[in-house]
Protein: Gfo/Idh/MocA family oxidoreductase
Organism: Devosia sediminis
Amino acid sequence: MTAPLRVGLIGLGEVAQLMHLPLLADDQRFAIAAITDVSPSLVDYVARRYGVARVHADADSLLANSDLDAVFILTPDHLHADLLDKAIRSGKHVFIEKPAALTAAQLEPLLSVPRPPDQVVFVGYMRRFSRAFLELKTRLPALDTIRHVRIRDIIREAPFFVAQTRNVFKPNDVSPDIIATGRARTQSMLRSVMGEDCPADALRAYQVLTGLSSHSISAMRDLLGLPKGVRYATQHGGETVIALFDYGHFTALYEAVIDDVSRFDAGIEVLTQTQHFKLNYDTPYIRNLPTKLEITTSSATETGTEIIGPIYEDPFRIELGAFLDSVVNGTPNKTSLEDSLQDLKLFAEIGRHFRAG
Ligand SMILES: NC(=O)c1ccc[n+]([C@@H]2O[C@H](COP(=O)([O-])OP(=O)(O)OC[C@H]3O[C@@H](n4cnc5c(N)ncnc54)[C@H](O)[C@@H]3O)[C@@H](O)[C@H]2O)c1
């Protein structure tokens, strides 16, 4: 057996505890070799729980650890661009949770940071690795036959689902200064795109784009390519977002609503004259919830629905395999920084509609 990939984790919060730590620990192709977080009690908990030998006082020290092959950046979004810059320069392979950065202006200069030719920098858009999504991509009809596309994220946020299914260690020893600085930096980054005088609801809506909607919008691009532009977008109260993407002979309609109804209704539908493709995703916070692709095909006299799934393999696990495949075999990585930049440019364009509307 080849030696496992030695990974270091920066940030040990919810997504690390729910997904990345258990998936890495379950997989003999990886070794969790080092960790860091700004919470000492959390570092201590994870080190004991996962038997991690090396704990670092901060991200800089972890990135300087020459014993690591790869680093996972799992921190709040406002730290992503700075940590990406340092991680790329460290020469290690990089997995970063989405979004790669909060703004296109932050990400753009990182594309020209000198890199070893085989370095993988991979952005964690797990929905794009779901088997049902990959099947939809394979089965997608010719673009010129598409009449309409509907994409949606009508959801309740994580705490409701997590509270009933998992015990996440929530530390109380993170300095209030770190929390306050993080909030202020986030607001300032959002304002750098949306304008200093941007109303709070439009600012929140831009943040919803970089958080929840980035999954759907990056999946839309993966499936259909880049739209010609954003024909219309609006938001209400920050957590209802509607956007119409112009694909020329059809329009892709995107809707996001974050509310307190306990369901997670996310998916993509593609309609041609005689076929309706319907892909659904459930909440990612509960592992292994099934995804399904339904394809209804009609002729003049008959109709039928083919159901692919339910598929139980968790998209986070497939994503981890894809990361490893890029590192070990050099397989091209579709969720690259260049790819993420397209999303951030679209979010800025949507944001301009929020301001105009
Ligand atoms: N793919 C998905 O579906 C998905 C789901 C949830 C979160 N995420 C992304 O993952 C990232 C983390 O989200 P989360 O929900 O786990 O957040 P979280 O707040 O629960 O965890 C972040 C962790 O980073 C730590 N941290 C903060 N500053 C740090 C620093 N300077 N150095 C080291 N550690 C630091 C915090 O103490 C905390 O433990 C975000 O970018 C988020 O967008 C993705």
In short: The mean pLDDT is 97. The domain at 5-124+320-332 is CATH 3.40.50.720 (Rossmann fold).
